[in-house]
Structures are given as C-alpha cells and as structure tokens.
Amino acid sequence: MKSEIVVIKLGTSVLTAGEKTLNKPRMVELVRQCVQLKRQGYQVILVSSGAVAAGRAQLPKPCGSSLKEKQMLAAIGQGQLIYTWQTLFSLYNIPVAQMLLTRADVEHRARYLTARDTLNELLHHNVVPIINENDAVSTREITVGDNDNLSAMVAILANANKLMLLTDQVGLFTADPRNDPDAKLIAEVRKVDDKLRALAGGGGSNQGTGGMATKLQAADIAQRAGIETVIAKGSEADIITKVMKNDAPSTTFVRFDAPVEGRKKWLLSAPKSSGALIIDLGACEALIDSGASLLAKGIISTQGEFKRGDLVMVKNQHGHVIAKGLCSFSDSELSIIKGCHSSEIEDELGCKSSHVVLHRDDMVLLECV
Fold first, then answer.
1. Cβ atoms of 55 and 76 closer than 8 Å
2. How far is residue 293's CA from residue 360's CA, in Å, rounded to a whole number?
3. pLDDT along the chain (369 residues), means of 10
4. Are 356 and 328 in contact (CB under 8 A)?
5. Closest alpha carbon to 11 in 307, 210, 183
6. Core vs surface per residue 142-167: b (16+ CB within 10 A) or e
7. Are 105 and 115 in contact (CB under 8 A)?
8. What SS3 state is found at 219?
9. How far apart are CA 256 and CA 363, in angstroms?
10. Is residue 170 a contact partner of residue 249, using CB atoms and an 8 Å limit?
C-alpha cells in the first residue's frame, strides 16, 4: 500500500524565526518532527524557502534590497541551505535530495512529467526531497512569494494527500489580527471566493516574500486537485505533529470531493494563460451543467494574443473566470469564427479544422455561473 504523502512548505520567516539569517535550532526541531512523520509511515516532501537568508549570513556586509542582490544571495545561500538540511537529516540516517524548479518546469508538459517521475523515484527510495524555486535565475517570482504556489504544484506533482503551509501567521482571519483585536480565526474553508481573497490582504513579514494572498492561491489550487491544505504557524511547538492530528490552531482548506486527474491536474497547477475567451450564458451552462466542450457558437469575444495549443482562460460576460484549457484556434482565427455554428467554420477559415474550440478533456472548470 502506498504511503500517504505530506508536502510541507516552510516560509523564510519560519526558518529564520524572524531574524535575518537561518535559525538552526528551529530547523533542528522541524527535522525532528519530519522524522517522526516518516516513522509513522508518511512520505515527506519539503518546499523550503531560506536561500536568500542563508546567503546573507555568508557575507560581511548587509545587502539584499534589490532583485540582483537577492539573486546573488540566493546563489550563495542555496548550497548552504541544502547542506544544512542534509546535515540535520543525516543525524537520523535519512538522505535528502535537492530539486530546484522554475515555473517553466511545470508549464511545459514534458518537463512536468520528468519532474514528476524524479520526485516519485526519490520517494520510492525513501529520500526526502528538498524543493525550492530557482531564485538565482528567477525574475518576477522572487518578489511575490512563488514558493507558496510552487508548493501546491509540487503537491500535485507528487499526488500528495496533504499540503502544509507553515508561516508566521496562525491562519486566515476574518480581519487583519495585527490591526483588529476582534479578528477571528477561520478554522475551515470549503471554497476560496472573492470575499476570502479580500480578507487575505497583502504581505506578511518583512523577511519573506509571500503573504496570505499567495497562500490562499496555493490552497485554492491544491484543494481543487483533491489535496487538503492547512495554513498554520510554524513557530508553534510540535506544529507539524499537531496539524497531522488536527489539533493545531490553523485554517484548513477542505479538499474537493472529486479531484481532477492527470492532464487536468497539470492544467490546473501550472501554465499561465496567454489570453481569454468571453462566452455567453448558454455556453457557460453547457460547460458547467453538462460537462460539454466549448464551441465557437458560444464565444462572444477574445482577449489577448494566443496561438493554437496555448492555454486560455474562459470568462463569463461578467468577467468571472469559470475555466481554462488548451485552445484549438488562435485569437485571429477566433475573431473570424466566434458566434459561428460548427458547420460554418471550414467555410469561414477556408480550410479543414476542428469544430471544437476547447475540448472538455483539455479543459478544467474553476467556477460556477
């Protein structure tokens, strides 16, 4: 029987205990809890921030305010970070492996499958994968806390059972607890909506790059893929053990009962959209209620530029995203055939072509009408 897989994302604020550099006693304690999990039969994957903080400790002069400096610190610190994890896990005779990923590794289908196979092989050999965003060559991602979203993608890659986002906050509150003493912890979330996104607000500590907003994005992705997600405070004693026992103050995002599989999980987790299709109410109902493919007849207009095979968002007339998928036509072709019956497409384009704009097998639903 396959062991349950737990992905644990450790934010910079957790690994530094709020300071400028890595806090070794905190990391020792986290490793002890991970080892305890493994002894209980779980497989553990760590998505570890902290490369910039580790690099900062290696230089005599303080720096790290600019993107270039952060990339430099990440390049210096990544080796130190993985060495620290390796040293601590070796106390328990547990091997670790470093995997550095970029968004491109999960956007490209072949690279996604390769990363998945590598991850599965590591788990098969009882190795703890230590995964990080490749910050030394990242650009925009280093400034928005992409390790949160990366952890959701890793959880999908590994077909994990649980995603644990350990941060400097207990969970998601009804208001900002730093400003509102009446703020209440939201213990359970069944679906992420606009109201919750508004509650998530901005960034957290000044040491990390992610705030509650990126954690909410990660939880949304993971729960749609059938993975329970928990946001909890990483500094709490025995926090990993308590989360596994459902005994920690935290916010739990309940997994969807009907998780998507295979190709649709990839569509859900990784690629960015090149454009959007605006569809009418009838098409919305056909997609959601009947599980139909999207036809040209239901398309009102397009947004952005995209080629055949690109990923596009599907929006209703109010601008709400209801699905995304791989488009069989370019934006220029759709500008010609939008609103057309399937039988008219060949005459309009002057060549044989698919009569389906987004096939249901290449599309994943995100929202209801």
1. yes
2. 5
3. 84 88 94 96 94 86 78 89 96 95 75 87 95 65 61 90 93 84 91 83 46 87 89 95 94 79 71 84 91 92 90 91 89 90 82 81 74
4. yes
5. 210
6. bebbbbbbbbbbbbbbbbbbbbbbbb
7. yes
8. helix
9. 17
10. yes
